[in-house]
Automatic annotation (TrEMBL):
Name the record gives this protein: RibL protein
Organism: Candidatus Methanoplasma termitum
This protein's encoding gene: ribL
Record domain Cytidyltransferase-like: where: 10-119
InterPro entries the UniProt entry points to: Archaeal_FAD_synthase, Cyt_trans-like, Rossmann-like_a/b/a_fold
Pfam families: CTP_transf_like
Length: 146
């Protein structure tokens, strides 16, 4: 008897790791047998979010060491569908606050010949300071109080 392994892909910046990240990765892992996480490279973070606080190699190492993660890899600039082809996931799990909607991503996957990949979204993890931007804002506020 041959068991079919389900490969799940998740992605994110993971700049200041917090419990929201852990919840996202636990939810993604629960949907399959193997979890591959794509960590955004510094150039992508700069382009889409902010100046990274933690360098890309450190972020990959940290994410790779987390219990739900089977492998963490560094993302590349450019066509995101190239890395999807490399990983060849059965499913992509979006973080609850990631820009793509499930429908938009599914349509783009189909356009790139990857329509067989399922798309799911993780649910929000409601805990104080779960977002990196909230943590950074709190640090800045504390620094301003000195």
């Amino acid at each position: 008897m041959c068991d079919i392994m389900v490969r799940v892909m998740a992605s994110g910046v993971f700049d200041i790791l917090h419990t929201g990240h852990i919840s996202y990765l636990q939810q993604a892992k629960a949907l399959g047998d193997e979890l591959i996480v794509v960590v955004a490279c510094d150039a992508t973070v700069r382009k889409n979010k902010h100046e990274p606080i933690t360098p890309e190699k450190m972020r990959v190492a940290i994410v790779d060491s987390l219990k739900p993660v089977d492998e963490a890899i560094l993302g590349k600039e450019g066509d995101i569908f190239n890395v999807v082809r490399e990983i060849s996931p059965d499913m992509i799990v979006l973080g609850f606050d990631q820009a793509f909607t499930e429908r938009e991503l599914k349509k783009k996957l189909e356009e790139h010949g990857l329509g067989h990949i399922k798309v799911m979204r993780a649910t929000e993890y409601a805990e104080d300071l779960t977002a990196t931007r909230k943590i950074v804002a709190k640090i800045r506020k504390l620094e301003g109080e000195k």
